[in-house]
């Protein structure tokens, strides 16, 4: 196979680290073949001063990590058709899908990484040990900006790393290590296609590297281009329409906001003859033209370099630039709200006037208020076009100070510009203006070139192109975010000056340092978007803020005994960081752990880590604003009208008695209006992680390594919207959720978050005024999360002839598995603990299976060929409310069965400088499991009746090539 390490020193350095850590070693072709966890160490002498393992700043030849670290290699990446870094991490059993190419509804075009299902805001993402800048005021970086083709390896440490890296590393840290010693020219190209003949993706990369003549320095530069086509929901059977359930089967459904105008309060609709007739129950398929896979166009450019002036002064730099364009698309816009209609409007029939105005005498300009809903198919699709430009510069210097000490000082600056164009919306003010029409057919208010809007018939062409253009509204927002970080650390091997245990050969290693970090962000919408003069996107006010922190940190590792009876190694380590945030106050993060190897073949490890996460700019500064959340209002669940305790509570919280149980007052399209926003009194989150495990490397079976680790992560004071979701607020108020108490007092804290309009509806159609209903979900510090589980990995490499099997060449096998024993969340002080392991749904969100397994087998019959098979397993999940209650509320949604996927890849060397690869992801073409949207809701990141990201869309084929000069 092509040798991707550029020189022998680089190969020794990587090989020394990875083989010494039992990270599953090298395949027979020299390619790292597995993602395995084991203690990280710098065992090779050449690596003693070069390797810093993720999760520590210490440099020591005898360093053993007390926390598990998982590694994915460049060669592994090439077998997965991965062009975005998020997809690479997503398949790890310890990870959960974040925002991805399948995120249409609930994203802004960026991709994120989510470890342990604790939220992408709680995973710290690094490149070469340096923070990536946040993509916006959410504080979360965009994984699209990571140059996948430049990755040498990825190191993942789960369960907290704040003592080393500071805020955000609650779930863990992902460190992308780039290729920094390449020499020559490399061209790589890859093309992929889904089994449906769509979703074509093309990725091309150029890399150029040069060493200095004296061998002391290197500059490696890269450029990349990615183009991905969209996939529409209408192209797949499972997503052509929205499905609900009758308890035994899936039923196609859609939105009640249809192309015919409806009087939502009276249950009437206009027909082609301009007559108001009873609503016929028809639904609009608002799913067909959504994106399943969003289109993307990306450009990457960057360089890394270093030069050894002397052993005491090695300056280095990294520069990166990316431009990423991603569009989102939804259905044609729908309007639902209260408008004024004048009596003399010539588009109203006499029958409609009599119903809308009632008996009496009226002038042409007298108005009636109508709660009207209509789908404006004349306006085209709702689209969001996102364009990101991001650059980051890192400069620093490191060197050997002698006597076992070295230093590393760096400064970095990152900046992101985000332009957001929102198309397909229309102006509420102009809709209102165009509905007030003189008897002669002209607008009462002709300003702005008003064109009358005729929505009182279903006859084709009633809404003219001129009228549609008059009310149409294209909006725009601009955002920028910046990050400054200055870090300095001093590392020392105190053994060089005689500070060591009398029973150990290696001395005490120590690192001390300081860091300053400042982050700022702003979001600047245009006037219409800021005040909510629109129908679809609602009000998104301007946001800006700045946070900063001064940190001091220290870390140490002390071997207690080495090469003694039952003490091949005994070492303890610890770390402490004190952070002073300008708004969130002072907070401490710390860790301690131990490694004990009674013999060389077995090693026990354990650690404790206190991690923190300071609130980000959005959580602190975002103004309160309307949003939407999929929920079913219990007060309008059915047409029962029964005088029950729930009925009394509904009336006490603002539902007129006559409207109780009337489904016509349900939130529009089950999209309840919510009020979301920041809170400047938030405090940092704190988590405690305990992990312990064992590593086996039996000398009698060389090439075999195995690890098993237990983890327990407890997060207190989690920052989250109060109640977490509109459905949780409903359930806790009205007692409809499992474990709730029916008939609660209307003054309880959950019922107080529900504000209803004059007909009792908790929905304002995306616009909030004093007369609108909504549910308050403002940020708070009262969440609790706890997850426990076991990670297990086994890897073996060898040759078939050594096993007497008679096959040529060598092979490698790795198995990674995560068992989530517990995932508990308590989203509010008074809510019960919700046990979400092995569940999915409104309460627990996307599927959180108890078992995830990733198995990989590679065979190299000779040095020019490698064939790889990968099996991915996602365990079964149960609907959360059914799991809580032990009952079956809906047989269709009750359970999502386990899913298995088989991937096959072949790589061929053609000569010494050219390699081909081809593969099939999801060979059997398993489609995603289908669940009713009433169970999945907005949590499925696309309203596509499934959970793309967790489950494959279908078969994907790819071909690629690499050539080097």
UniProtKB/TrEMBL annotation:
PROSITE patterns: TONB_DEPENDENT_REC_3. It comes from the Bacteria. Its main location: membrane. The keyword Membrane applies. Residues 94-114 are annotated as: Disordered. Pfam families: Plug, TonB_dep_Rec_b-barrel. Residues 1-34 form the signal peptide. Residues 65-173 form the TonB-dependent receptor plug domain. It is a multi-pass membrane protein. Residues 371-923 form the TonB-dependent receptor-like beta-barrel domain. It is found in: Cell outer membrane. Residues 103-114 have a biased composition (Low complexity). SUPFAM superfamilies: Porins. Keywords: Cell outer membrane, Membrane, Receptor, Signal, TonB box, Transmembrane, Transmembrane beta strand, Transport. Belongs to the TonB-dependent receptor family. This is TonB-dependent receptor. It comes from Sphingomonas colocasiae.
């Amino acid at each position: 196979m092509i040798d991707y390490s550029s020189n022998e020193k680089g190969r020794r350095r990587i090989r020394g680290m990875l083989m010494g850590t039992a990270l599953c070693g090298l395949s027979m072709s020299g390619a790292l073949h597995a993602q395995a966890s084991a203690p990280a160490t710098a065992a090779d002498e050449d690596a003693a001063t070069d390797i810093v393992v993720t999760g520590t700043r210490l440099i020591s030849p005898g360093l053993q990590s007390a926390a598990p670290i998982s590694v994915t290699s460049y060669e592994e990446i090439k077998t997965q058709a991965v062009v975005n870094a998020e997809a690479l991490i997503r398949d790890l059993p310890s990870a959960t899908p974040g925002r991805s190419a399948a995120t249409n509804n609930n994203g802004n075009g960026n991709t994120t990484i989510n470890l342990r299902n604790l939220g992408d805001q709680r995973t710290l993402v690094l490149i070469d040990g340096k923070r990536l800048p946040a993509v916006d005021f959410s504080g979360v970086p965009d994984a699209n900006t990571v140059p996948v083709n430049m990755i040498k390896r990825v190191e993942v440490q789960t369960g907290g790393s704040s003592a080393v890296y500071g805020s955000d590393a609650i779930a863990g840290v992902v460190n992308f290590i780039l290729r920094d010693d390449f020499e020559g020219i490399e061209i790589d190209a890859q093309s992929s296609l889904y089994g449906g003949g769509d979703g074509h993706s093309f990725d091309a990369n150029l890399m150029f590297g040069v060493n200095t003549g004296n061998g002391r320095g290197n500059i490696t530069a890269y450029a990349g281009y990615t183009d991905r086509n969209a996939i529409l929901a209408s192209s797949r059977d499972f997503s052509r329409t929205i499905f609900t359930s009758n308890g035994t089967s899936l039923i196609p459904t859609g939105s009640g906001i249809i192309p015919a105008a409806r009087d939502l309060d009276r249950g009437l609709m206009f027909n082609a003859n301009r007559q108001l007739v009873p609503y016929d129950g028809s639904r609009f398929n608002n799913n067909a033209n959504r994106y399943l896979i969003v289109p993307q166009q990306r450009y990457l450019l960057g360089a890394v370099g270093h030069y050894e002036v002397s052993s005491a002064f090695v300056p280095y730099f990294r520069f990166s630039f990316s431009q990423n364009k991603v569009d989102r698309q939804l259905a044609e816009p729908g309007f639902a709200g209260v408008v004024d209609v004048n009596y003399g409007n010539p588009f109203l029939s006499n029958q409609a006037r009599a119903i809308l105005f009632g008996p009496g005498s009226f002038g042409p300009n007298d108005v009636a208020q109508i709660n009207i809903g209509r789908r404006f198919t004349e306006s085209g699709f709702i689209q969001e076009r996102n364009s990101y430009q991001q650059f980051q510069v890192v400069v620093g210097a490191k060197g050997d100070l002698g006597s076992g000490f070295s230093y590393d000082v760096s400064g970095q600056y990152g900046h992101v510009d985000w332009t957001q164009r929102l198309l397909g919306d229309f102006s509420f003010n102009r809709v209102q203006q165009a509905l007030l029409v003189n008897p002669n057919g002209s607008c009462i208010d002709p300003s702005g070139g008003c064109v009358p809007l005729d929505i009182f018939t279903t006859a084709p062409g009633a809404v003219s192109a001129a009228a549609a253009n008059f009310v149409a509204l294209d909006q725009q927002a601009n955002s920028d975010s910046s990050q400054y970080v200055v870090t300095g650390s001093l590392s020392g091997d105190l053994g060089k000056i005689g500070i060591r245990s009398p029973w150990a050969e290696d001395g005490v290693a120590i690192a001390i340092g300081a860091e300053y970090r400042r982050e700022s962000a702003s979001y600047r919408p245009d006037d219409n978007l800021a005040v909510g003069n629109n129908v679809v996107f609602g009000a998104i006010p301007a946001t800006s803020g700045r946070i900063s922190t001064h940190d001091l940190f220290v870390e140490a590792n002390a071997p207690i005994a080495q090469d003694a009876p039952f003490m091949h190694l005994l070492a303890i380590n610890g770390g402490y960081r004190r952070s002073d945030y300008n708004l969130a106050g002072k907070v401490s993060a710390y860790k301690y752990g131990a490694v004990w190897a009674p013999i060389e073949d077995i090693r026990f490890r354990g650690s404790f880590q206190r991690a923190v996460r300071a609130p980000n700019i959005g959580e602190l500064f975002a103004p309160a604003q309307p949003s939407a959340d999929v929920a079913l209002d219990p007060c309008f669940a059915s047409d029962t009208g029964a005088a029950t305790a729930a009925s009394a509570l509904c009336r006490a919280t603002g539902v007129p008695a006559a409207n109780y149980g009337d489904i016509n007052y349900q939130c529009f399209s089950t999209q309840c209006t919510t009020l979301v926003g920041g809170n400047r009194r938030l405090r940092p989150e704190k988590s405690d992680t305990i992990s312990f495990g064992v590593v086996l490397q039996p000398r009698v079976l060389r090439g075999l390594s195995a690890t098993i680790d237990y983890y327990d992560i407890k997060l207190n004071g989690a920052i989250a919207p109060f109640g977490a979701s509109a459905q949780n607020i409903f359930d806790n108020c009205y007692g409809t959720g499992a474990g709730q108490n029916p008939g609660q007092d209307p003054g309880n804290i959950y019922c107080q978050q529900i504000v209803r309009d004059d007909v009792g509806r908790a929905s304002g159609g995306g616009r909030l005024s004093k007369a609108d209903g909504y549910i308050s979900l403002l940020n708070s510090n009262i969440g609790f999360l706890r997850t426990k589980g076991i990670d297990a990995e086994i890897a073996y490499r060898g040759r078939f002839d050594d096993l007497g099997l008679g096959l040529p060449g060598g092979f490698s096998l790795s198995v990674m598995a995560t068992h989530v024993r517990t995932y508990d969340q308590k989203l509010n002080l008074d809510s019960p603990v919700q046990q979400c392991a092995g569940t999915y749904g409104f309460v627990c969100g996307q599927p959180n299976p108890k078992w995830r397994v990733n198995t990989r087998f590679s065979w190299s019959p000779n040095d020019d060929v490698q064939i790889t098979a990968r099996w991915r397993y996602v365990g079964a999940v149960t609907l959360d409310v059914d799991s809580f209650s032990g009952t079956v509320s809906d047989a269709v949604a009750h359970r999502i069965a386990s899913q298995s996927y088989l991937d096959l890849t072949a790589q061929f060397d053609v000569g010494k400088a050219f390699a081909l690869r081809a593969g099939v992801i999801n060979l059997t073409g398993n489609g995603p499991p289908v669940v009713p949207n009433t169970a999945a809701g907005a949590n499925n990141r696309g309203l596509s009746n499934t959970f793309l990201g967790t489950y494959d869309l279908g078969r994907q084929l790819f071909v690629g090539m690499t050539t080097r000069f």
